[in-house]
Amino acid sequence: MKIFYLSLLAIFGFIGCSSEESGPSATPAETMYFPPIGSSAWETKSIADLQWNQNAVQPLKDYLNLKHSKSFMILINGRIVMEEYFNGHTASTTWYWASAGKTLTSTLSGIAQQQGIININNKVSTYLGTGWTSAPLAKENLITCQHLLSMSSGLDDSLGDDVSASNLQYEADAGTRWAYHNVYVKMQDVIASASGKTWNTYFNTKLRDKIGMDGNWFTVGNNSVYSSTTRAMARFGLFALNKGKWNSQQILNQAYCQEATTTSQNINLSYGYLWWLNGKSNFHLPQSQLQFNGSLIPDGPTDMYMALGKNDQKIYVIPSKKMVVIRMGEVSDPDNPTFALSGFDNELWQKINALYQ
């Protein structure tokens, strides 16, 4: 009987060890790596070490070059597996994030809430005062910070990116309509007002400097746009992969990180708090009220959440694979410029999948 129980323990012990394997890494149990702050040092992991398909590397690089990319990175467990630059771009060259930077605003909203200076369930006028829109006061008072983060403010998105009060007009009650709208940028004003600091100062001290990012915000028209090196973008992706943690410091609580990367409303299932979500049953696209069935990126991992920006600026975060993927560059298809998602995403993931499938 004793031998029988020992045999069962051995079997279940083997099963338990096997179940830990996740993602494409050949060493799934290795520790998560965080590159040091203030240093260019960054550990690497080779294609050979991961037992990936070396023959798939060059087709991927050729595709990226063909599609007007400037840079591309893959991290596994925080270590660089691929880091490529194209068309004169270098590791020290900065490039704009476009709407991929919306996720920075989402993150700082969580940090501000964690500090107790805002509550995303409060109405926006709590922080900005009434009259920040031209909607009737009763309708304006329906709009919470959460509605800005989930793109469900109900304000008219057809009037362009101008976020002055006169251009923010009522279209529907908050929470009843999803529309990709530049009004989200008002969250930066909310945080600045609540913290008593400028948006740039709050961002730099609460996030950028804590994870060793470079880069700065600049204004284009009514848009607040972030620009940085590719490695800075990768640092943020690594921070997102680790649910708000950098090394041993939990900068943003995991509960908010989980909330931000989960469906935020019941209209566009593929949208969290300024993060796009893969693997859902339907999605909406910018400048459209149509619902499309299926996953945003059919060939991408189903648990992937994404920062997607104009002209194909991309941060892909894949928890099951301990993976972060970065792409910066010009628009992949000049004849079909896009605001966020494009056909490039799925084609790119077909090439990435070939590395390890």
Describe this structure in words.
The structure is a single chain. This protein is an alpha+beta fold. The chain contains 12 helices and 13 strands. The strands form 4 sheets. Strands 2-1-13-12-11-8 form a 6-stranded antiparallel sheet, with helices on both faces. Helix 3 packs antiparallel against helix 12 and helix 4 packs parallel to helix 8. The longest helix has 17 residues. It is globular and about 60 Å long.
Give the topology, please.
Layout: H1 2-18, H2 47-50, H3 57-66, E1 69-76, E2 79-85, E3 95-96, H4 102-114, H5 125-128, H6 137-140, H7 145-149, H8 186-195, H9 199-211, E4 216-220, E5 223-228, H10 230-241, E6 245-246, E7 249-250, H11 254-260, E8 276-277, E9 282-283, E10 292-293, E11 305-309, E12 313-318, E13 323-329, H12 343-356
Antiparallel strand pairs: 1-2, 1-13, 3-5, 4-5, 6-7, 8-11, 9-10, 11-12, 12-13
Helix pairs in contact: 3-12, 4-8
Give the amount of beta strand, in percent.
15-25%
CATH class type: Alpha Beta
What name is given to the CATH topology?
Beta-lactamase
CATH H-level homologous superfamily name: DD-peptidase/beta-lactamase superfamily
Summed over residues and divided by their number, the pLDDT gives a mean of 92
Helix/strand-derived class?
alpha+beta
Could you say what the CATH architecture is?
3-Layer(aba) Sandwich
Largest sheet report: 6 strands, antiparallel
Describe the structure concisely:
This protein has twelve helices and 13 strands. It is α+β, with helices and mostly antiparallel strands.
Which descriptors apply to this entry?
about 350 residues, alpha+beta, Beta-lactamase, 6-stranded antiparallel β-sheet, 3-stranded antiparallel β-sheet, 13 strands, about 30% helix, globular, disordered N terminus
